[in-house]
Amino acid sequence: MKYIIMLMIVLGLAVSDFVTGLIKGYVNHDLNSAKMRKGGLNKIAELTVMATVCGLEIGIKELGKYYSAEHLAEITGAVAAIAVFCYVVLMEIVSILENYAEISKAEWVAKFLKRLKNVKNKEE
Predict the structure, then answer these.
(1) What residues does each domain of the chain span?
(2) Contacts for 102 with CB less than 8 Å, ≥ 6 apart
(3) From CA 23, how far away is CA 96, in angstroms rounded?
(4) How far apart are the two ends of the chain, measured CA to CA in Å?
(5) pLDDT in tens, 31-88
(6) Reported pTM
(7) DSSP letter string over 44-79?
């Protein structure tokens, strides 16, 4: 069940990102089918990666049973799935906020994204 929930969250965020991107293109008079196609393919790739990681977690768990290391395998699989899930969720949220900032011209969103990017640059 947790895999379905994770995939539904990623799917919901991907659809929201795609829709906000579409609205942004409409508001900025910059609707571009090539960008939409690339964005749609990117979303399909994200869902594929998330589904693959969920499958990997299941596989690692089963492999752990085979080698009598169930607890270690369960932790390893969960860490891999949760790490990828968190990365995809954060990436989608940032993209949605970037789209929203261009749609609404809300100053608070632009400031928040600027701070977020400063934190990212300091980490690199």
Answers:
(1) 2-123
(2) 24, 27, 28
(3) 11
(4) 36
(5) 888 888 898 899 999 999 999 998 888 888 888 888 888 888 888 888 888 999 999 9
(6) 0.81
(7) HHHHHHHHHHHHHHHHHHHHHHHTT-HHHHHHHHHH
